[in-house]
Amino acid sequence: MQKIWKIKQAPAALQERLSADLNISPFLAQLLINRGISTAPKAGEFLKPDASCLGNFSGLPDIDKAKNRLQKARGNKEKVLLFSDYDADGLTALAIAKNAFDKFGLKAEYYIPHRLKEGYGLGGDSVRYIRDNRFDLVVTLDCGVSNFREIAELKNQGIETIVIDHHHLAGDEIPRASAVINPKRRDSSYAHPDLAGVGLAYKFARYLLDENLEEELDLAAIGTIADMVPLTGENRVIAREGLRILNNTRRPGLKSLIETSGIRNKLIDAEAISYILAPRINACGRLGEAELAFRLLISSSTDEAQTLAKELNLKNRQRQGIEGRILDEALTLMDTEIDLTRERVIVLHQDGWHQGVLGIVAAKISAKFHRPAIIVSFNDGLGKGSGRSIDSFHLFDGLTECSPHLEGFGGHKKACGLSILKEKIGDFRESINRIAWEALKPEDLLPSLSVEAILNLSGLNSGMLDEISSLEPFGQGNPKPIFASLNLKVQSKPEVLGRGTLKFWVSDGRSVYPAVGFRMGNYFDLVNSARNLDIAYRLSLDTWNGNNQLQLEIEDLRVSEVETNGRSSLLRLS
Length: 574
Known about the structure:
Blueprint: E1 4-7, H1 12-22, H2 26-34, H3 40-47, H4 63-75, E2 80-84, H5 88-104, E3 109-111, H6 124-132, E4 137-141, H7 148-156, E5 160-164, E6 179-181, H8 197-209, H9 217-226, H10 233-246, H11 252-260, H12 270-287, H13 291-298, H14 302-337, E7 346-351, H15 358-369, E8 373-379, E9 382-388, H16 395-401, E10 408-411, E11 415-421, H17 425-439, E12 448-451, E13 453-454, H18 463-469, E14 483-490, E15 495-496, E16 502-507, E17 512-517, H19 524-529, E18 532-542, E19 549-559, E20 571-573
Parallel strand pairs: 1-12, 1-20, 2-3, 2-4, 4-5, 5-6, 7-8, 13-14, 17-19
Antiparallel strand pairs: 8-9, 9-11, 10-11, 14-16, 14-18, 15-16, 16-17, 18-19
Helix pairs in contact: 1-2, 5-8, 5-9, 5-13, 8-9, 9-10, 9-12, 11-13, 11-14, 12-13, 12-14, 13-14, 14-15
C-alpha cells in the first residue's frame, strides 16, 4: 500500500526561540519540538539526561510497604520466592532482583513458568509449587497484577505476595497482596508510569538497598528496550546509561552473547538489542523453557556463559524456522478467511500453532496490513493468543470491552495476550471488530510515514548526524528521524547490489548524494524509468572502503507528482 507521508511542522517562532535559548541549530530545535519538547529546561533534560532522577521514588505506590515486608522476611528468615515472566523484560527483572536480594541478605529462590505448559503469570501449577514447598512470601516481577484469584488463594493459605508489575489494570481494583508496586494504578502519582517491568524492578532494588546500582543498568536497558516501552523520561535515562555500561559490560553472559551474535567490537545501540540480543534472550522462553536465558544473565563463568550463548543462538534459529512456517500459514488463511473491507481487526486461529511465536507473527501481519492483528492457537478447545496493534487502536481497552468472550487477558495499548474457548472465537471476532469500527477511521488503516522535515539536499552536512545522534537512543516515543526531499533528479542508472540493495544518485540541482535502499531491489524499474523522485530517508554515513560520505538511506520513494501548490497529493502536514 502507498504510504501517506505526514510532514511535521514546527512553529517558526518556537523553533527560533528554542534554538536561541539552547544555542543549538534550528534543525535540532525542530527535532526536539517534534518530540513534544518545547522548553529549554525540558530540552536540556532530554539532551543531557541526569541519572540522579532514578533515585526519586516519590508517588510510587506501596514501595515502603514492600521494603518493610522484605525486612520482616529477612528478620524472620522466611522462605521467599521470586516469580517472573519468561521474556527479556521479566528475565532481566529477575536477574536484578535476585542480585539485590542476595545483597540484602535474603536468599530467595526463583520460579520461571513454562510458557507452553503454564502460560503467563501465576497459575495452577505455580500455586501448587508455592504451597507444596511452603514458601512464606512470593514476589512477582513483570506479572501478577491480573492474578486476583491466585493471589487470593495464596493469601488464604497464609502465603503473602508482593507484586512488582507495570502492566495495565482493568479497573481500580488491585490484587489482595501485601504490596502492589505499579505506576499505572489509578491512585499512583508517580511521574513515570511507562516504566518496563525491569525498570520497576531496578527502581525497587535501588530503594531496597539504598544504593544507585549503576552496574545493573546494562540489564535494565536490555529489558526496557526489548519491551518496547517509550524511551522517554526515566526509560530514556535507563536505556542511555545502560547502553553505555553494556558496551563495556563485565558480565560473562552478556559478553558471550554479544560475541556469539557476531557484534563483538561493534557499537551496541538500541537496534542491536531489539533485533539481535533480545530475540536470543527471548528464544528459549518462546520455545518453552526460559531457564537457559536466565542462567546466562547471571552466569559468573566464562565457559558456562559461552556454552549457554551458543545454545541460545541455536534456539533462536529454531524459533525463526517455526515463526516462518506459521507466518506462511497465517497469510494463506488471510486469503480465504479475512475480508479487509469489512474487518478492521485481523483475527486468525488454527489448531496446534506454536504459542511461543504468536506475538511475532501478529506483529508482522499487523505491520503488513496496517491494522490490529490477533493470532490464536487452540489445543483441546482452549486457545492462547497474542495481539499487536497500530497507534490508533488501544488493544487493551478493546479487550476489556470484549472480556465476556475471554477466559483471561492482559497487556497494554500496542500488545496483548489472551485465552479463549474455541466456541467463543466467532463472537470475539465480531465483538472486537465492532469496537474497531467505532474507534477507527478509514484513514487510520492507511500506512503512514512520519517525516520530521522536508530538507534540501544542498543544506545537508555531516554536523546533522552529530545532532541526530544526540537524540539517541531511539525507540518507541523517540523514533529515529526520517526526512524527505522532493522532486529530486535521478542522476545515475540504478544498481541492484547484494541482498537486493538498490543504489543510485540523486540531485536537487546543486548537490548530489547517493541514495541506498536495503532490500528495495523491487523498486529498480520505478527508479530506472523516473526522471524525478520524492524520497523519504534516514541520514547515514557510508563508511564502505573508507568513504565516510553522507547518504540517503531510503525509507520510501515515489515518482514526483508536484502539484501547482508545490506539494504532492500524498503529503500531509501534521
